[in-house]
Amino acid sequence: MKSKKNFNPFFRMVLLLSMTLLVGIVTAIGLFYYMFSIPEPEGMSLAHWPQTFTNNFSSWTTYEDGELSIEQIGLDRLDEYGLWIQFLDESGQEIFSYNKPAGYPEKYSASELLALSSSDYQNGYTVFVNSLEDPEEACSYCIGFPYDIRKYMLHYNGDRVARLSPVARLIILAALGSIVIVVLVYGFWLSRKLSGITEGIKNISLRTYGPLQENGMFGEIYSALNKMDRDIHRADQISQETETMRREWIANITHDLKTPLSPIKGYAELLADSSDKDKQTIQEYGAIILKNISHTETLINDLKLTWQLDSGSIPYNPQKIRITRFVKEWVIDIVNDPAFSDRDIAFESNVPELYADIDPALFRRAVTNLILNALTHNPAKTTVSVTLDIDKNESILLSVHDNGNGLSRSEQSKLFERYYRGTNTKEKPEGSGLGLAIANQIVTLHGGEITVKSQIGIGTEFRIQIPCENRKTAN
Length: 475
Hints:
Blueprint: H1 9-36, E1 37-40, E2 43-46, H2 49-56, E3 61-64, E4 67-70, H3 72-81, E5 84-89, E6 94-98, H4 110-117, E7 126-132, E8 139-145, H5 158-206, H6 219-273, H7 279-311, E9 319-322, H8 323-335, E10 344-349, E11 355-358, H9 360-376, E12 383-390, E13 395-402, H10 409-414, H11 435-445, E14 449-455, E15 459-467
Helix pairs in contact: 1-5, 5-6, 6-7, 7-11, 8-9, 9-11
């Protein structure tokens, strides 16, 4: 089992800060050595090594009574490091040199020697100057190093620096302590906030989330979490409602399929049990069986069409047609249906012939579903009007209006849901509950939109809006 510290935001932050500090220290050390170090035969040395070497060279040298003596180890070191040396008496005259390159003089004045001690990289060398300690006669020497070394001298008030040194150390320690305290406090605060966010995400998944105040540094995150929680609850609600409707629909469709099967089976058994029935009785029984078979086929076809529209596998063959003529013919076909011969159905077109890119068979199914819905779910005296018009956007507007029972707001919001059957189903309890959903899917397939407007006791109006093709090249 992994340690909780591995997942604690505070420890992660401390680890991050530690790593950042470590990287900063390593980088600073690297930059320091890059700027203040030089390569020499034994490795990397700080840039003050030439001055140290120059000062220490006197340990290999003696100068007494005007006689200069250099130990061999000193000369070997000069050869090893690629250096040159020049000894001068008190007048600046050269008394000895070793590996000295051409171009350097054999005598220096006091000012030239002083300038040489502070000179920078010239002629491929940086020269450092020192003197031998001799009580009777002064002797100086210069050593040339093949490194580009800059020389600077810092002057300061030693007394004040000595007095300020403890204060400076105290200030530095206090500053470091303050930084550590601030980091720890901020770390605990940040850890608490991040823990709250983590807990909120966990609670969202468990559906136990409580809304957070959308303010402060993490206001946008809190707002996103609140919105996510609302969306999830809404999705859960929709899913629950859909599942409830699906279960109800399965129960209804199962019942509806059994309803026509019962008379089919009953009348078939009557026909099979007796052979003394007259021709008229046999025809009546056969008509009842055929009617129920037709209803069963309608239910099955609705299920098949719904699946085809969902999967995109339905054949779709749009054509340029005279939609006014076609809709008028569809209305006439319904009027001539014996089941609706006594119903009041009207057709009206307020514009000249309109043309549209539609699949005639599919679009007829959508319009017919709307008309049949108005006829079957309203009283017998209800008037149904089908109107064609064109709106301000020059789109075709097809309206199916009735003055029947009307629908409540809650019913209107669910009309186009696949499993919804509504409450006014007494006129046709065997409906599949797919008619309006199929109509909506077909209209959407044609790039259009279907809307409903209804009022209890006044009636209902369905509006289909599709693009208009005003070109006389249609069937």
